[in-house]
Design a protein that fits this description.
By secondary structure, the protein is mostly helical. The protein is built from three helices and no strands. Helix 2 runs antiparallel to helix 3. The chain is rod-shaped and about 125 Å long.
Length: 121
């Protein structure tokens, strides 16, 4: 055998270390690239979630609150009760047609006020 076929132990170990170092460097670079990609994906996802949260908050501000609706409905109920009392006190002396028109107008105005409040609110 000639000298070219033999490799010294130092050259062999250096070659193995260099090969191992290159493979580890490649793995670390791939790992770093994967981490950056995952971080970018997470950042994009969080931005979408923030946009969704803001959209929900904006839509929620357009809804009528329960206490406001209950307050309006109590007002309408009180008006209807007072009209019903007037009808019962009249004892049928007044024409039913006139009372029906009055009740209809009172209900329509109450509902119109309620709708206007919801639209403006």
């Amino acid at each position: 055998m000639t000298d070219r076929e033999y490799v010294s132990l130092k050259e062999y170990i250096d070659g193995r270390f260099n090969e191992l170092d290159k493979r580890l460097t490649d793995r670390f670079l791939a790992s770093d690239k994967a981490i950056v990609t995952a971080a970018n994906t997470l950042e994009t996802r969080l931005q979408h979630l923030n946009e969704f949260r803001n959209q929900i908050l904006e839509e929620r501000s357009c809804y009528a609150r329960k206490d406001e609706v209950e307050l309006r409905l109590c007002g309408i109920t009180e008006k209807l009760d007072s009209i019903a009392k007037l009808v019962s006190f009249s004892g049928g002396k007044t024409a039913g047609k006139e009372w029906a028109i009055g009740i209809f107008i009172a209900i329509a105005l109450s509902l119109a006020g309620f709708v206007i409040t919801l639209v403006k609110g």
